[in-house]
ABC transporter ATP-binding protein (Kribbella qitaiheensis), 276 residues
Amino acid sequence: MRRTAVIETSTQPSSTAPGNTPILSVQGLRKSYRTRTGDQFVLDDVDLDVATGEFVCLVGPSGAGKTTLLRCMSGLMPPTAGTVQVQGRVVDRPPAEIAVVFQDYSRSLMPWMSVERNVMLPLRSKGMPKTERIATAQAALIAVGLDGTGTKYPWQLSGGMQQRVAIARALAYEPRALLMDEPFASVDAQTRADLEDLVLSVRDAFGMTIVLVTHDIDEAVYLGDRVVVLSGSPTRVREEITVDLGPNRDQLATKALPEFVALRTRVLRLIREANA
Ligand SMILES: Nc1ncnc2c1ncn2[C@@H]1O[C@H](COP(=O)(O)OP(=O)(O)OP(=O)(O)O)[C@@H](O)[C@H]1O
C-alpha cells in the first residue's frame, strides 16, 4: 500500500486508464441452484472481460443473478459450468488478488474487535509482521478519511463510517481488484455520494480494478467506465455500454450533462425491456 497516499475527491485525470489486458475473465459461466423443485438456472452462458484498471458496474433486473455472478467471480461460489480467470489463472477458490466488499457492513465487521484490528484481520494470511500490519491498517484508515478511529469499535461508528472501515480493510489487503456488491445500499443519500467519490479516488490512487453491483442506474453511470446490463433470469449479458464521460466525475456537474442523462435513459430502457 502507498502509505503516503492522500485520497481526495477525484479531480485529476485517472492514472489508471483502462488497459487492454483483462485481469478478470468470465467465460461461458452457468450457475444453477438446487432447490426442492429442481435446479434453478440463474446464470446462462455469461461472458465478461474486465480490463486492468477498469471500473465496471453490473446492473440488471432484481433477482437476475448479479450477486451470484459476483460471488462466482470472487471464487466464493463454484460455477456449474464455464470458468472465471484472474490474471489468466482459473479461479477455484478466493484468489489473493481480489477483495470483496458486501452491502451488509454490520455483518462483515467483527463487533468485538476494534476498527484497527478489523482492518488488520486479513493481513495475517499474508504473513505480515504485526508492526507492518498496524502501519498498513493505519494508512488504509487514513486513505478512507477515518484517521483516529482505530481504537473505536464498529458499533460506535455511523453506517457510512462502518462501510468506510470495510473499504479500508479491502484496501489494506492491497488487492488488484475490488468486487463490491451493492456497497452503498444501506446508507443515506449524502453518505452514498461521499462513498461513491471515495471509491473513485481510491481507484485513481491505488490503480485498482473495480467491479460494482448496483441497483442504482445513476450510480452505475456516474462511477463506471463501462456499464454491463444483465438480462432477466436466466441471466446473460444483454449489453455493455461504454461510459464516455471522462475520468473526472462530479456529483452535480457530471449528472447534469446531457450525455449522462442519455446514458441513464439507455440503461433504464434496457433494464425495463429485460423485465418485460
Ligand atoms: N443460495 C441460493 N439457493 C437457491 N437460490 C438462490 C440462492 N441464492 C440466490 N438464489 C436465487 O437466485 C436468483 C438470483 O439471485 P441473486 O441474489 O444472485 O440476484 P440479484 O440480481 O443479485 O438480486 P437482487 O437484485 O434482488 O439483489 C434469485 O432467484 C434467488 O432467489
